Amino acid sequence: MFDELETPAVLVDLDVATRNILRYQNYCNEHGLTLRPHIKTHKTPEFARQQVMAGAVGITCQKISEARVMAEAGLDDILITYNIVGASKLAKLRALSNQVRLSVTADSLFVIDGLSDSFEDSPEPLSVLVECDTGALRCGVTEPSDAITLAQAVERAAGLSFGGLMTYPAVGGTQNVQSWMTEALALCKEAGLDCPLVSSGGSPDMWTAHHAPVVTEYRVGTYIYNDRSLVEAGVCSWQDCALTVLATVVSTPAPDRAVIDAGSKILTSDLLGLEGHGHLLGRDDLSVRSLSEEHGCITATEGATGLAVGERMRIVPNHCCVVSNMVDRILLHRGDRLEGDRKVAARGCVA
Amino acid sequence: MFDELETPAVLVDLDVATRNILRYQNYCNEHGLTLRPHIKTHKTPEFARQQVMAGAVGITCQKISEARVMAEAGLDDILITYNIVGASKLAKLRALSNQVRLSVTADSLFVIDGLSDSFEDSPEPLSVLVECDTGALRCGVTEPSDAITLAQAVERAAGLSFGGLMTYPAVGGTQNVQSWMTEALALCKEAGLDCPLVSSGGSPDMWTAHHAPVVTEYRVGTYIYNDRSLVEAGVCSWQDCALTVLATVVSTPAPDRAVIDAGSKILTSDLLGLEGHGHLLGRDDLSVRSLSEEHGCITATEGATGLAVGERMRIVPNHCCVVSNMVDRILLHRGDRLEGDRKVAARGCVA
Q1: Is the ipTM of this complex over 0.90?
Q2: A54 and A136 share one domain
Q3: How many CB pairs under 8 A join A and B?
């Protein structure tokens, strides 16, 4: 397949991506959830627009730089799920708020104070969601009572309005989200505070999102492409994986070993708890045992690999989001038909 | 330090990088080794030129796309240590050979045949080094006798000339290189074949390169920046690390945990056998326990982290080469003085 393409290359099957977008939008529609996809997976305005046209309420970004790329391309409802810290970023956030319907998260008074300093003279208040740690041990207040304290601080702060509660739960943490947020909402009510939104997310638990009915909005990124981590977790099948890495065998130094031209510079070193570095489509008997920057070393479960130099293979990476960030362009196809390429416009937006 | 900079950002101390370049050039001069630095670490023509001006015989690249960036910038002696496979790449290689003094490696008849097809009508033969596996289990023929067979095939092939033997040894493999190459050279002599060059490399063993006197040329990449993997291996000290990642604390959800804005999108997931994701300069008591794309979770060995939101830190990454590839620009400084920025011109050259 695609014998003329230089490898390694990142391929995205538009039919599969479209099917993934529609299928999960349908799920959210059925369960009364609003969907706010995370653009970190594809980093392209074209896919973001497709997600919104399918019914998404807006998009999620994690960086102002990503949000700016999306805003420039006409996406107009953006949640940045990140604590914005520092004068330069706060100034950019303020500028961006003139362009789009914007909301952010905060999990400390320090962050709220910074936002308020930047927005105190804003004609429209900035919507700030309080980030809650429901078990992932990353950002977020760990106690529901602290969430209410911060929500009240947001309401008091000049230029800000309380937008709701947000969490990025641990994998398998749907029930924790339900109990944590239920308690927090009760405290909100006690405090006479209106909580307009409860936002949760995560692709690994996307099909059980409705088991936390307290949640009103769901954020998913990986679902548009899917990857080996989600297949291995039973969330989807190999046929649902829209993103693959096309690689060429460049060396067969021994019968039981082969080397491909896809290394960590395209597959990345992300393991997500898995062994090996991606799944070789159609070759369950082979594994990508190790990576260096430009080489992937393939071994067979048993005996010879049967691979020859020049042979091409497609790999479903462990984690698709990070692969998108390694290339300037992705190649688009529908099955065996190549359909051009697309710039990964928000690639490399680190700040 | 650098309070106004947006984070995360990749900083490179020019004084430290220059010192590293000169120190290893001196080592090579003292030991009669020619030095051919690998540009994968910095991916910038400016540093490549500095390496050549310090005395390097030329540069090493792993991709034609990288070599083209360097050739455009005036670097004129390039070894591509990779099996070039595929019509499109072979055509680019041929075009590049008109521009610079070029050599490549090969470890199979398939690769040699492809090179010969592309260069058979070339006015100058392409120099092809035979890649030898002296223990790293990546590319390369595993037996010295096979190296001679391929060297003879290169000599017979139209448009090619045998450029020597090349190996990327396993860490700690200097003695293996010496015995493997000694045997191969004896076989060359037996076969009446002149071997103009024996090229080895690797930063972890850079200070013992002279323990394999059979080697005439040494390739190193990481030595210009150094990183945590080399400090932990005793190759250099923290003061020799030119590349650091500047990060900001964005959350302190619990006394014993803090979150910084440097995640795998800038530090990458490369572990290189280490625990944790980089070294926090001046804070030996803290470690970067886990990364997600935009978050780094910091814990203390014992008790509280003592970190506050807004605080800045500098991190020496586990592996500096892969960090260079994550950003469009690096920020240059000398100690506490910022000196502008530099485009990472060969970033993202995957094919």
Answers
A1: yes
A2: yes
A3: 161
